């Protein structure tokens, strides 16, 4: 081996010697050849003609001729979504809509906390201390002690490690999903997921797989297909994250998701679950902790719970809660958290007081559930309208039993029913959707919202009025 | 060796990070995910967060406990484990001069006309709204605000939204879609970038405030049409900001408007920082340059900075606002503005316009301008 080493050394010495002894032109030629080879290796084989051979005059003509579309197409004056109902005064139990006083069956004020005096005085105290706005995002002196307190209280209430607050309900889930799920990851989402979830998924650029609403067999089929795909390419499978996004109480259909089966699927196929609890927070469960309490599931089994504070808590904004390992990531990656001003302190104080009330009066949840069941029963059997939603869901839908042919006509018919009820003192609204943007557009419906403040007489009156309206308009 | 300073600083700052990089790569540690699950964060993605950001994390997210006015009280916090967790000592550091909050005109106050008006509306209306604009969330206060904003800006009509970030990310997709072209400045805010991405239109970036770059892109776009199919573009939207928050530069508005008119495109101006702060009467960058608001197709802004409240608005022609009232994502699916916040905006805007009978607003604007000239 020493001899071979010596031999190699000899060859090296000879090479260096030859290099010194070679004539100059030879070296220069070799150098040019090497540079040419390198250039050929790195240049494109065929330069595509990027520039067309248009003369400047032709370019001017093209620019002259081009006519853009108008910025926005004209909207007809009688478009149903153009003319809003004007509410004069607070949107509480008795609401003045378009000049008429009605009982409110349209605002998501489930626990009646919108005009609660304690909540208002807590907000007043905060207003006197902090003013209205925070004048900055969370990273740049927009973090107030009220925000930290609210996050702690929410985490304690939901029995998770940490919570994070957003200043807008829609932005909560729409920023949370893209923070974890990126291009190349796979998300299994229910067809009836709300628009905010759809926007979050669009922003994440992941592969979306829709499964039929609440159909666990369909979801399992998709998961099995994914498993067979993974076995073909295990290396890719090891880095592809998988998520299931479901809602606790669906806004579009009023159903609950079958959470126990989802947990089983989670551990069988190793997918993470993101739960959107905007409607079920403060409604389901013995203490209002949402669908996990309703089904008696350990909250650590759910990876992320997201909810907005605009329904039961009667404030503005949203929150996500879960393990610190998961939530802390959003403090740098949640777009709606990092790049936006924080929640005004008076709204955070209102939310804290609302939480206090929820913790001190756990019997309101049972009262709400009884009222929901009462109206659900009372609305059965209306000719022409069917009730869509669980019996304990406070946000029901009333859809037409038979469509009249086109969606436009259905919407007009339902508007007449709503107008009849409004003229007689019950404020209702149609569920609004963006028809061209929704992935799975739900049928037109009237939204009926139940709150704890409605008395039994009012509930019966509403049911009776809807029967009359359906009778006069639809028959 | 006369390398430009930026390059020098980048080179010098990379060297120690490289050392940290190699050291940490040899010593990477990940908190355990549940067994057999794909890790939620890839080592590489989370690298910056764990190793570089953690060391200087205490510079951000500092909690304060008073009005974000000229002087602010901060909560003292310490870390005993190199910034992984913080504990609050309970002490409050008082009267720190505040040069970090976006409180340009000083309307973030805990006493005064704005606060009193907001308190009155809060006791009357409550804090929340619990419904969307198209359903039962359109209060008379919102209509009043929108008329006032339209009058303030000098446009036909305006619409207000609950969050400034969401105003961009939800309305740009309503205005443009597939087959349209968006020309966006290099240093645009994350909300504009997100809105442009969600719309599905083609996005092209021009160099920051560089009119030659913008003109070249416009010319090429119209002459060559859409890539590959060569069909003409449906519309072209230019996204610029009034003041760029991270650089402090002001957009070259006269030149942008001249280009926009020459090439028949539409202009979307985001005045988050410039509304209320630029111009002799606080009407923003359009007034600063002495131009007409009719030249800007979509005037967007936020109420967070100069007005001391929260939310955003879009102003423009009546057809534009009618279209947004019908098709904006925010109007259909998101809750409307909270009433006391609306009242704060109305009071502060009237004050700036001088309609409250005092000269407080005018004085604030004059003072802000004099401070600017003193500093520069």
TrEMBL record, chain A:
Similarity comment: Belongs to the class-II pyridoxal-phosphate-dependent aminotransferase family.
Q: Which domain of life is it from?
A: Eukaryota
Protein name in UniProt: Serine palmitoyltransferase 1
InterPro entries per UniProt: Aminotransferase_I/II_large, AON_synthase_class-II, PyrdxlP-dep_Trfase, PyrdxlP-dep_Trfase_major, PyrdxlP-dep_Trfase_small
User: Which intervals hold domain Aminotransferase class I/classII large?
Assistant: 101-462
**SUPFAM superfamilies named among the record's database cross-references:** PLP-dependent transferases
Please explain the role this protein plays, according to its UniProt record: Component of the serine palmitoyltransferase multisubunit enzyme (SPT) that catalyzes the initial and rate-limiting step in sphingolipid biosynthesis by condensing L-serine and activated acyl-CoA (most commonly palmitoyl-CoA) to form long-chain bases. The SPT complex is also composed of SPTLC2 or SPTLC3 and SPTSSA or SPTSSB. Within this complex, the heterodimer with SPTLC2 or SPTLC3 forms the catalytic core. The composition of the serine palmitoyltransferase (SPT) complex determines the substrate preference.
Please give the catalytic activity noted in the UniProt record. dodecanoyl-CoA + L-serine + H(+) = 3-oxotetradecasphinganine + CO2 + CoA; tetradecanoyl-CoA + L-serine + H(+) = 3-oxohexadecasphinganine + CO2 + CoA; octadecanoyl-CoA + L-serine + H(+) = 3-oxoeicosasphinganine + CO2 + CoA; L-serine + hexadecanoyl-CoA + H(+) = 3-oxosphinganine + CO2 + CoA
Q: What is its EC number?
A: 2.3.1.50
The reply to whether Transcription figures as a keyword in the UniProt entry is: no
Q: Where are the transmembrane segments?
A: 24-42, 163-181
Q: What class of enzyme is it?
A: transferase
Cofactor(s) listed: pyridoxal 5'-phosphate
Please name the pathway.
Sphingolipid metabolism; Lipid metabolism; sphingolipid metabolism
Q: What terms describe the molecular function in GO for this protein?
A: pyridoxal phosphate binding; serine C-palmitoyltransferase activity
- Short name of any one Pfam family annotated for the protein: Aminotran_1_2
Q: Which GO terms describe its cellular component?
A: endoplasmic reticulum; membrane
* Keywords attached to this entry: Acyltransferase, Lipid metabolism, Membrane, Pyridoxal phosphate, Sphingolipid metabolism, Transferase, Transmembrane, Transmembrane helix
What are the recorded Gene Ontology BP terms? Answer: ceramide biosynthetic process; sphingosine biosynthetic process
Q: Keyword check for Membrane, yes or no.
A: yes
TrEMBL record, chain B:
Q: Which InterPro entries match?
A: Aminotrans_II_pyridoxalP_BS (IPR001917), Aminotransferase_I/II_large (IPR004839), AON_synthase_class-II (IPR050087), PyrdxlP-dep_Trfase (IPR015424), PyrdxlP-dep_Trfase_major (IPR015421), PyrdxlP-dep_Trfase_small (IPR015422)
Example GO molecular function:
serine C-palmitoyltransferase activity
Q: What class of enzyme is it?
A: transferase
Describe which pathway this protein belongs to, using the record's wording: Sphingolipid metabolism; Lipid metabolism; sphingolipid metabolism
Q: Which cofactor does it need?
A: pyridoxal 5'-phosphate
EC numbers for this chain: 2.3.1.50
Might you name a Gene Ontology BP term for this protein?
sphingosine biosynthetic process
Name of the featured protein: serine C-palmitoyltransferase
């Amino acid at each position: 081996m020493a001899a071979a080493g010596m031999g190699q050394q000899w060859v090296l010495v000879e090479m260096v010697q030859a290099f010194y002894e070679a004539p100059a032109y030879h070296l220069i030629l070799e150098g040019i050849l090497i540079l040419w080879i390198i250039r050929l290796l790195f240049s494109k084989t065929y330069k595509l003609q990027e520039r067309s051979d248009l003369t400047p005059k032709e370019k001017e003509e093209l620019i002259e001729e081009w006519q853009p579309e108008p910025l926005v197409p004209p909207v007809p004056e009688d478009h149903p979504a153009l003319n809003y109902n004007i509410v004069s005064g607070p949107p509480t139990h008795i609401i003045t809509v378009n000049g008429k006083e009605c009982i409110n069956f349209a605002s998501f004020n489930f626990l009646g906390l919108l005009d609660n005096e304690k909540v208002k005085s807590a907000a007043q105290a905060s207003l006197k201390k902090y003013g209205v706005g925070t004048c900055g995002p969370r990273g740049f002196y927009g973090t107030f002690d009220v925000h930290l307190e609210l996050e702690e209280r929410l985490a304690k209430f939901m029995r998770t490690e940490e919570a994070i607050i957003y200043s807008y309900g829609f932005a909560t889930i729409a920023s949370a999903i893209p923070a974890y799920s990126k291009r190349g990851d796979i998300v299994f989402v229910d067809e009836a997921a709300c628009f905010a979830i759809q926007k979050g998924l669009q922003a994440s650029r992941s592969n979306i797989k829709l499964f039929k609403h609440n159909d666990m067999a369909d979801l399992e089929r998709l998961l099995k297909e994914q498993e067979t795909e993974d076995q073909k390419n295990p290396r890719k499978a090891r880095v592809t994250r998988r998520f299931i996004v479901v809602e606790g109480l669906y806004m579009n259909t009023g159903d609950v998701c079958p959470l126990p089966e989802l947990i089983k699927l989670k551990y069988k196929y190793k997918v993470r679950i993101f739960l959107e609890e905007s409607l079920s927070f403060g409604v389901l469960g013995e203490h209002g902790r949402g669908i996990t309490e309703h089904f008696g599931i350990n909250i650590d089994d759910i990876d992320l719970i997201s909810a907005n504070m605009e329904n039961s808590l009667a404030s503005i904004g949203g929150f996500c809660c879960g393990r610190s390992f998961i939530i802390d990531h959003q403090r740098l990656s949640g777009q709606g958290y990092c790049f936006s001003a924080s929640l005004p302190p008076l709204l955070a104080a209102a939310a804290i007081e609302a939480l206090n009330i929820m913790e001190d009066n756990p019997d309101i949840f049972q009262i709400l559930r009884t009222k929901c069941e009462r109206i659900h029963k009372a609305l059965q059997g209306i000719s022409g309208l069917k009730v869509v939603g669980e019996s304990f869901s406070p946000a029901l839908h009333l859809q037409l039993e038979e469509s009249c042919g086109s969606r436009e006509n259905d919407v007009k018919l339902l508007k007449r029913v709503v107008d009849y009820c409004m003229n007689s003192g019950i404020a209702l609204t149609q569920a609004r959707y963006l028809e061209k943007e929704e992935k799975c557009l739900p049928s037109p419906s009237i939204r009926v919202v139940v709150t704890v403040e409605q008395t039994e007489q009012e509930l019966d009156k509403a049911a009776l009025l809807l029967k009359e309206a359906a009778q006069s308009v639809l028959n | 060796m006369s390398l430009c300073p930026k390059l020098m600083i980048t080179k010098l700052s990379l060297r120690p990070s490289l050392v940290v990089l190699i050291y940490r790569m040899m010593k990477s540690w990940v908190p355990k995910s549940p067994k057999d699950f794909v890790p939620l964060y890839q080592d590489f993605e989370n690298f910056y967060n764990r190793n570089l950001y953690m060391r200087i994390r205490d510079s951000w997210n500092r909690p304060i406990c008073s009005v974000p006015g000229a002087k602010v009280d901060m909560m003292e916090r310490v870390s005993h484990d190199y910034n992984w967790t913080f504990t609050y000592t309970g002490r409050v550091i008082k009267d720190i001069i505040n040069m970090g909050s976006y409180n340009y005109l000083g309307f973030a106050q805990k006493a005064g006309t704005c606060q009193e008006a907001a308190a009155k509306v809060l006791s009357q209306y409550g804090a929340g709204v619990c419904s969307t604009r198209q359903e039962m969330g359109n209060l008379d206060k919102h209509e009043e605000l929108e008329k006032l904003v339209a009058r303030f800006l000098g446009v036909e009509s305006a619409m207000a939204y609950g969050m400034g970030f969401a105003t961009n990310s939800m309305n740009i997709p309503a205005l443009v879609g597939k087959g349209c072209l968006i020309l966006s400045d290099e240093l645009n805010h994350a909300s504009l970038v997100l809105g442009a991405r969600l719309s599905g239109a083609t996005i092209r970036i021009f160099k920051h405030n560089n009119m030659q770059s913008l003109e070249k892109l416009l010319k090429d776009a119209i002459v060559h049409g859409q890539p590959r199919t060569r069909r003409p573009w449906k519309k072209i939207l230019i996204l610029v900001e009034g003041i760029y928050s991270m650089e402090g530069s002001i957009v070259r508005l006269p030149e942008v408007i001249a280009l926009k008119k020459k090439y028949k495109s539409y202009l979307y101006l985001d005045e988050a920082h410039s509304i209320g702060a630029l111009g002799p009467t606080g009407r923003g960058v359009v007034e600063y340059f002495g131009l007409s608001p009719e030249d800007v197709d979509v005037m967007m802004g936020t109420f967070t900075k100069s007005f001391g409240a929260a939310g955003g608005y879009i102003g423009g022609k009546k057809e534009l606002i009618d279209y947004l009232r019908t098709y904006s994502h925010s109007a259909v699916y998101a809750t409307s503005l909270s009433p006391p916040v609306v009242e704060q905006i109305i009071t502060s805007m009237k004050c700036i316009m001088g309609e409250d009978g005092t000269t407080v607003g005018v004085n604030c604007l004059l003072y802000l301008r004099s401070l600017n000239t003193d500093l520069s």
